[in-house]
Amino acid sequence: MDKIRAAGLLRTRGLIGGQWVDAYDGKTTEVQNPATGEVLANVACMGNRETADAITSANTTFYTWSKLTASERSKALRKWIFLLTVYIPQRHDLLMSHKEELALLMTLEQGKPMKEALGEVNYGASFIEFFAEEAKRVYGDIIPPTLADRRLLVLKQPIGVVGAITPWNFPLAMITRKVGPALACGCTVVVKPSEFTPLTALAAADLALQAGIPAGALNVVMGNAPEIGGELMQSTQVRKITFTGSTAVGKKLMAGSANTVKKVSLELGGNAPCIVFDDADIDVAVKGSLAAKFRNSGQTCVCANRILVQEGIYEKFASAFVKAVQSLQVGNGLEESTSQVANPSFGSVDMIPVGPAYKCTHEKNPGWTTASGHLGPVRISSKIQLPEKRARSDPNGSASRIQLLENERPAVQFCGAALAQLCKNEKQELLEITFYSFFHMQGPLINEAAVEKVEKFVGDATSKGANIMLGGKRHSLGMSFYEPTVVGNVSNDMLLFREEVFGPVAPLIPFKTEEEAIHLANDTNAGLAAYMFTKSIARSWRVSEALEYGLVGVNEGLISTEVAPFGGVKQSGLGREGSKYGMDDYLEIKYVCMGNL
Ligand code: ADP
């Protein structure tokens, strides 16, 4: 926490009208580190009175912020991205960036490993960047008139004050995915972050203020969730509620918004099927399912919740998958990366092989750099013989392997190309490339209640005949750590099938036919993300169209991006976030008829 404090980013009071304020009755609540139980800070515990003032402030600012040109709003947003992500010298001996500090804060209060946290800062900033650009593309329409002396126009205007309620699993990105488009459109916002992760939200808001987002355009209140939510819902000034969280709370917010007829966007729970067909590439399927299941220790609403495996490949897939899950390391998210904080570009990080994802010789196929699906660092090692001087980052100093570490997906491609060139120069045949994923690291679950839920689901499954193939109990580290778990022979009468486990438990469900897989996949009220692994193009189309889901990943386990629409069908929610469609929820359409021309 000292690093965060030194950077001036430890904020514990709410943000109302540009002022950092305590709860009016002085109440505070603790924010804890789920990995250690340490109390990180005491933050203001606010309620309806503070929320009412935040709404008033947002409402007043709406009249000025919405009158700025799109270009002016875009510039302020772009400055915010800069402060969130760019490296800024802080002390003469150390390069620190707000990116590192925000990631550190996330790891401390949420538990996700630093690598994933750094990935989330990029992901969070990508929404601001995307919507800063979209701000300039809010086009209206001119409609051919039905009478000669009329002109019919369509204007798109910001909806007004937005109440944004966000969860703890993505403490930054779930905020920027809402605040980015809202501010870009000209709306002002009152954010209520999760009580478990307010520090990241407050730090990001601080940087927004520093970036010149005007006082009152972005307010943050936290504390008593039903009171804050109640105030947001009953206010006639709040014109929209946007929420990411549980289906139960989403339903409450939808009902509560009825009285004032607010526009509502909901990103609710999922129950993602991940279908592995007999004709899948087994390495791709293992890698994709692992990433889809174990990201953030299984605590995302798009995490694979049910892995449906066709009979013919079941045994083979199960044993490869168990092996991959076995190599996941459980621990405090800070452990892997203290060196990464000081030096973000390099560092020796243990990663698990999630491949070999690719085997080829570079002569036959120089385009082998297909490490898609990784949000974070990827290490590529090749079994090639290279002179000693070339084996740069091999920890054992062995000349038989070369390992390259890069941070971003494009860098992976660069890395691959560079390695291919290297092999060519050295006249070495490239035998095998192994792609590594940073999802090797599993942090704690958010709290004790989350572990109890996982235990209940696993207990229910075993009592009904499922078999534990790996894990299946609390981790010896204690706190809220749970062993990465694989459960075999899960069926549709078990909680693991019916509900979202939100933890590191992968249920394997055997099936016979494509029809049965589609039926099982759709046999739920949820409809957020679904995944499938198959080599058949025809089947990809057929099944994608048959799945009742808002997002479908084909041969890919990580599909979220700021440029594509994210959202669910059925009880997984309303509206879409990200992409050009993500602007619509913050805009009203106004028809103007000019007559007697
Ligand atoms: P999760 O199970 O992912 O924590 P929740 O739906 O409980 O999901 O929480 C998501 C967000 O909704 C958090 O910011 C939480 O404080 C907030 N929340 C919970 N209950 C209410 C409520 N009654 N009204 C408004 N917000 C709520």
From TrEMBL:
Signal peptide: none annotated. GO terms for molecular function: NAD binding; succinate-semialdehyde dehydrogenase (NAD+) activity. GO terms for biological process: adaxial/abaxial axis specification; cotyledon development; gamma-aminobutyrate shunt; gamma-aminobutyric acid catabolic process; maintenance of shoot apical meristem identity; reactive oxygen species metabolic process; response to cold; response to heat. Residues 20-339, 442-592 form the Aldehyde dehydrogenase domain. Pfam families: Aldedh. SUPFAM superfamilies: ALDH-like. Keywords: Oxidoreductase. Its EC number is 1.2.1.24. This is Succinate-semialdehyde dehydrogenase, mitochondrial.
